[in-house]
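User: I'm designing a mutation panel for Mitochondrial K+-H+ exchange-related-domain-containing protein and want to avoid disrupting the core. Could you give me a predicted structure to guide residue selection? Please restate the sequence first so the numbering is unambiguous.

Assistant: Good idea. Sequence first, for numbering, then the predicted structure tokens:
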Amino acid sequence: MASLRKTWGTMRIVALPLTRVPPPRHTVTYYSFKVVPPPAPPLPKDSPSSRWLPKEGVVKWATLKVDATWGSWGKAEPGTWRFRVFEFGERFLDKLDFEEAALKRIDVKSAPPAKFPDDLTGEERQQAEAAWGKLKVPLFYPPSISSGPAALSDLRALLQQRIPLHNRGFYTYLIIAPLTAPFMIVPVIPNLPFFFCAWRAWSHYQALRAARRLDALLQNGKIVPEADKALDSAYASPPEVDASLKADAPPSPVPNAPADTNPDTSSSTTPRLIVTRDSLGNAMRALDMEPDEGKDLLRAYEQAMNRVR
């Protein structure tokens, strides 16, 4: 597997179901995607590009720069236009689909390829071809809540929904962005409508690329479900679930349901929330989440709660 790490990175997926719904509908699931890039080859010391290019790459540097600028706006004086834009932006982010934020975290450049790369030759090609043949992307799921077939089915349903959505969003904002040019004549304040459209187009594009890569890996049988009992800690009181229930059959009511669950939704035809904020804290610790991803998980919880109401 040495050639695999030299050619592309490794990847793992963690699925945390947030709701339970009867078939054929699919659960609302939070996905944690992690890509470990391969070691970067060192640049020659006398290379001109090594003198001015950021070590983390131009795209990563620009992303960090934007994040730093956005954070500084949040520290501006209350009442200023920067602070007001920051408040509006944070409220918008809370309403943005958490699935989009999760997909955007995938580093497509370092992720395993959808198919064997054709640009390799000789011994390097033979080694990489053998490594790609053994490539597996584990899809971890909580065995007390889901099953292997159900985990794959939910992921497939998510991608079938997100790919056309992000494709439309990308082209829509790409077309709208030039129409915001007249706002450039406003003095002092930057052209916020243009930057918003450009950001939304970029966001949709990033999520679209990631969704397509996952869909291709799924179709090629490279994503393999694996039960992980440590993920059961995300559920305050995991219900007893038999094999037929996890795969096909409608679920039974969840015992000791979270306080956020509406007692009137006990029917087997009604979606139900099966996590709490406290139990998700267990998942954050089990997955060793970064603060930003933990924030995304809590945002996913809030959105899932609103979807089942």
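For picking mutation sites, this is relevant: The two ends are 48 Å apart (CA to CA). The CA atoms of residues 59 and 65 lie 10 Å apart.
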